[in-house]
Amino acid sequence: xxxxxxxxxxxxxxxxxxxxxxxxxxxxxxxxxxxxxxxxxxxxxxxxxxxxxxxxxxxxxxxxxxxxxxxxxxxxxxxxxxxxxxxxxxxxxxx
Length: 95
Prior knowledge:
alpha+beta; 6-stranded mixed sheet; 3 helices
């Protein structure tokens, strides 16, 4: 299982956030997040939003640190990217 996280550089709600993704499936991503106690409500389209204070915990649990640009590239390459405003049919990789 390999999941990826970008640095906490995304502002929102008075915090800085990272994106946690999988390049295999949403199921893999949900399993990893659940193991860390990340609530399902933190899942947004194709990633989990992770607050900066949880970043080190997620990396210690096995997430690979990559750039934000690499997160997008990995999602596109895996066919798992779900851009805002665009609806996509759910497939076997979704959950």
